[in-house]
Sequence to fold (180 residues):
Amino acid sequence: MKLLLVHGRLRERGGLRAAVEALTEELRKNGVETEPFSPLKTENLLCSGCGACKGAGLCVADPRAKEFLRAADGCDALLFISSGSLFGLDIDMKNLLERAVSLALRRGDRPLAGKKAAALLLCRSGGRKSADQIAALLQKLGLRPPEGGEVTVTGSDESVQALCALARLLTENGEQEGSV
Fold:
């Protein structure tokens, strides 16, 4: 099994960077290959609706969405790790996912349909808007949540336990079918 870890900035606050490293090592020991993917090279450009992606097949302002779809296509499950706030999802993650959705819809296919995906959002307060945003974007990509949860919103104190729990949900019972 191969798990794509899509993450934004892994700050030391709350020990998330160490948790991701420890999780990667633990999954490797259990025969689960992990591949990191970060949207941080994405420029914070909003979609201008120029339509250039129709001919090119990718956003001409930011090719990371096509790279993401290619990386995700080669994985069995996806785990998103991002920060959130009262105002919404981290801008880098939001831009990446919106562009990936746009590419998939313009091509008329859903290349990730049926793959399991979950998200861990770190929010000090609120976070419901962030959770709703990422859940909607994952659904538009055709990703399905594992049994037991799709989006977990947590403060920094509980992030390590939440990350491990989501990884277990994604990697255990890998052959079970579910619905979006």
About this structure: The first strand starts at residue 2 and ends at 7. Helices lie at 16-29, 52-56, 64-73, 91-107, 128-140, 159-171. Strands lie at 2-7, 33-37, 77-85, 88-89, 116-122, 151-154. Residues 2-171 form a domain with the Rossmann fold fold (CATH 3.40.50.360).
